[in-house]
Q: What sequence folds into this?
């Protein structure tokens, strides 16, 4: 009788070698039955027969990917430029500092800055803005750096505008609005050239550092000149300078102010020269400008 390689390997064991050919056939049949894959023993990955061993998983390698986001199945809806309406119970899921990702045509990323029962207040700095449109594919994250979330946002309002041409013939002894008309930089789009003012945007009420400067020419010596910061049409700070020169004069004023959404800031000047021929210097790089900087807590 001819035997397969596996049978000869089995028969090669001194402990299991049968005495007769009939015993061999019987032993092989019994062995194949014991090697059934339904039991706790069976063939190894190499084809060898193993008896009396329970399979053991040794040093497994587990491979998985996670982008750091948790998908939300609840419906989210636009409420305002800084708030999202969510189902009741938000405070038990979200907290200040959590990150969210939503889609409004394109993916947008925000930090949660406040949580109420059905409202999330968020900010995306200047990089992302909530619009009055459907919100789809909402996700949130509590990890440090979920996939796609920006490493930083532009959060604080920072803007400066200047006078691009001379503003001539100031009316004597009248507080005159400086006609600032060109933004030097403006990361939140808060400068409105048509009204020569900065307007505090939604979500950015707080403390601001305001710096104004005015350059004058054709001044009259030994007279008084004043530069003002105005908020909502009223002066909050001024600086008075007496000129000893009859040519040019530079003045500066600064203030810290608590400003609310929609408040506006302007620059004013007054000449007490006794004549209406004093001019405000303009052009790029002139000293006539107004700067506001939000002071983060």
A:
């Amino acid at each position: 009788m001819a035997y397969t390689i596996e049978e000869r390997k089995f028969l090669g064991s001194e402990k299991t070698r049968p005495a007769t050919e009939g015993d061999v056939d019987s032993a092989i049949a019994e062995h194949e039955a014991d090697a059934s894959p339904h039991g706790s023993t069976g063939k190894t990955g190499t084809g060898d027969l193993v008896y009396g061993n329970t399979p053991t998983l040794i040093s497994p390698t587990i491979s998985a990917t996670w982008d750091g986001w948790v998908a939300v199945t609840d419906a989210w809806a636009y409420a305002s430029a800084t708030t999202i309406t969510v189902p009741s119970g938000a405070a038990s899921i979200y907290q200040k500092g959590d990150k969210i990702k939503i889609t409004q045509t394109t993916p947008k990323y925000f930090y949660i800055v406040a949580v109420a029962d059905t409202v999330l207040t968020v900010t995306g700095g200047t990089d992302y803005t909530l619009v009055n449109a459907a919100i789809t594919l909402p996700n949130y994250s509590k990890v440090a750096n979920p996939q796609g979330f920006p490493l930083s946002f532009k959060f604080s309002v920072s803007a400066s505008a200047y006078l691009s041409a001379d503003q001539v013939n100031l009316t004597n002894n009248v507080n005159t609005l400086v006609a600032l008309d060109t933004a030097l930089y403006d990361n939140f789009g808060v400068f409105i050239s048509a009204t020569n003012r900065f307007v505090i945007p939604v979500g950015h009420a707080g403390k601001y550092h305001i710096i104004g400067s005015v350059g004058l020419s054709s001044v009259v010596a030994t007279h008084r000149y004043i530069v003002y910061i105005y908020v909502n049409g009223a002066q909050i700070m001024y600086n008075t300078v007496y000129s000893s020169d009859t040519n040019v004069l530079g003045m500066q004023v600064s203030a810290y102010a608590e400003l609310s959404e929609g408040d506006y800031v302007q620059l004013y000047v007054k000449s007490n020269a006794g004549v209406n021929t004093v001019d405000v210097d303009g052009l790029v790089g002139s000293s006539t400008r107004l700067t506001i900087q939000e002071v983060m807590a």
The mean pLDDT is 84. The CA atoms of residues 24 and 30 lie 10 Å apart. The helical segments are 5-11, 21-34.
